[in-house]
Design brief:
By secondary structure, this protein is of the alpha+beta class. Helices cover 23% and strands 16% of the residues. The protein folds into two domains: 248 residues, Jelly Rolls; 56 residues, no CATH class. It has a six-stranded antiparallel β-sheet. Strands 6-5-8 form a three-stranded antiparallel β-sheet, with no helix packed on it. The longest helix is centred in the N-terminal third of the chain and has 11 residues. The chain binds 2-oxoglutaric acid.
Length: 327
């Protein structure tokens, strides 16, 4: 599918190919996500937009050739500047599926020290897809981070699992309630650089944790700009990078309905009084800021004094929509 809208007919995505990665058009992609719990939207974001932003990725991560070039300083930089969520897992054998603490190296949380990557986090194609799939315009970004992996850091092979750790209560998976987890591919994710593996269709995430059903395993390989969307009921796992000199970079962009306080992961409030957030916020439309919870123009929260304060806090923001909507 050409995500900027170049679409073929929805009939290109039939039950026969319901388990194959890649779909024909956005309506078909939405339907596939709703029915099967996951979809790989091939090329959702144009390559040029990814490449423009990724030029700044190398301010945050060592380039693959640097990392693999033998200078330990680059490895140290990777380990030192990334955030592994505090994950600590029991030491596992090097072989086979396991959660290993080092798999979670390489996380850098939004907002990034990169204006271009910050703008990519709210790319209209991804936001538009999430709204269509979730069936509501009133959505929030609740997970926003970049994850870099390099061949040889650890064995990245995980057991199949469902992401029950995005919600403090059991997941309700129905229109109007469901959340959408997603990875936007910042690099080409070919078979030997660890495309996420999906196990069949959705499973009930409210039942005891028993493992995925037997059946097909699908590798979500895709070019940069593709977006893997899945739900918390989908059994999936990370796999190992086997390509010598390989790497993989994804941007997590996950969404929940407005008001779903029980779902969460990342939030920007703790860093919202400083750059890079303030610089990013100054570039945002009301609709973009609302993705992070800001009240829209016309909301009873706003007074003339608060709109003035918004302009002082984010110099350069276009506050006219908030001001115009004051009653
Ligand atoms: O990295 C991946 O491909 C998937 C990782 C994953 O599912 C997890 O860490 O929960």
């Amino acid at each position: 599918m050409n995500a900027s809208g170049g679409a073929t007919s929805a009939s290109d995505c039939t039950d026969a190919d319901a388990t194959s990665a890649g779909v024909a058009d956005l309506d078909a992609a939405v339907e596939h996500w709703q029915e099967h719990g996951w979809v790989l939207v091939d090329g959702l974001v144009p390559t040029a937009d990814i490449d423009h932003a990724v030029e700044e990725l190398w301010d945050l991560y060592p380039r693959p050739e640097e990392f693999h070039g033998g200078d330990p300083a680059h490895r140290e930089r990777f380990v030192g500047t990334s955030f592994n969520q505090g994950h600590r897992f029991p030491k596992a054998d090097d072989e086979g599926p396991a959660f290993r603490s080092k798999q979670f190296l390489g996380h850098i949380l939004f907002p990034y020290k990169s204006p271009r990557l910050n703008r990519l986090q709210v790319h209209p194609s991804v936001i538009g897809f999430a709204r269509r799939a979730m069936g509501t315009a009133d959505i929030r970004i609740y997970q926003a981070r970049i994850w870099g992996k390099y061949t040889g850091v650890t064995n990245y092979e995980q057991p199949f699992h469902q992401d029950r750790n995005h919600n403090v209560v059991p997941d309700r998976l129905e229109p109007g309630w469901w959340n959408l987890e997603g990875f936007l591919y910042l690099s080409d994710v070919e078979d030997d650089v660890a495309p996420t593996e999906i196990a069949g269709g959705p499973g009930d995430p409210t039942l005891p944790y028993e493992g995925p059903p037997d059946g097909e395993r699908i590798s979500a390989a895709g070019r940069r700009g593709s977006y893997l969307a899945y739900r918390p009921d989908v059994w999936h796992r990370g796999v190992n990078l086997t390509r010598p000199g390989g790497s993989r970079f994804l941007m997590s962009a996950s969404f929940k309905p407005g008001g779903a306080d029980w779902i969460g992961y990342d939030n920007v409030q703790p860093v919202s009084t400083a750059r890079p957030w303030s610089s990013f916020a100054a570039t945002c439309t009301p609709d973009e800021l609302a993705l992070f919870g800001a009240p829209l123009p016309g909301h009873p929260y706003w007074t003339a004094e608060l709109v003035d304060a918004l302009e002082r806090r984010y110099p350069g923001i276009d506050a006219a929509p908030w001001r115009d909507a004051l009653s």
